[in-house]
Design goal:
The chain is mainly alpha-helical. It has helices at 10-31, 41-68, 100-105, and strands at 77-83, 87-92. The chain has one domain (10-127). The chain has a two-stranded antiparallel ribbon with strand order 1-2. The protein is elongated, with a radius of gyration of 23 Å.
Length: 142
């Protein structure tokens, strides 16, 4: 008997991603050695980069899960597309990729190629940096 597919629960997916991102933020806030304003710009940038990497991971996972819609998925990178009478794509897939055996057994079958690029949902993140260092003004010193 074939297992019935459950519909993709986008609300649960978004809540999990939101939870994981918030958890990352709280973890980094708790680990701060001092108040944000007292940290040097370099340390602020380190914290921002760690959080940025977590956000990239969570958003990428969410985009891939939504695009997969509970289908068998094999993730790879498009290396080449040639167009003559039709289009031919070469996709490089790691040999240890999940579902690679399913792909091998599907040779000759129709497939759907879904472009699930998370980068379009991450634009502008590289412009976020720490606060510029404030110089202490020597009041009352002459």
């Amino acid at each position: 008997m074939k297992e019935e597919k459950k519909p993709l629960d986008l609300l649960s997916l978004s809540q999990r991603a939101g939870h994981d991102i918030l958890d990352c933020l709280i973890t980094h806030i708790r680990a701060l050695p001092d108040a944000w304003q007292k940290l040097p710009k370099a340390k602020q940038d380190d914290v921002i980069e760690a959080i940025r990497q977590n956000v990239i991971t969570e958003v990428t996972m969410a985009v891939h899960a939504i695009a997969a819609d509970q289908r068998t998925v094999v993730i790879g990178a498009i290396e080449q597309v040639t167009i003559k009478d039709g289009a031919k794509a070469v996709i490089k897939i790691p040999k240890d990729a999940p579902n690679i055996l399913d792909l091998c057994q599907a040779q000759g079958l129709l497939c759907i190629v879904v472009l699930a690029n998370a980068e379009e949902h991450l634009q502008g993140m590289d412009r976020i940096t720490g606060d510029d260092e404030q110089k202490i003004l020597p009041f009352g010193k002459h």
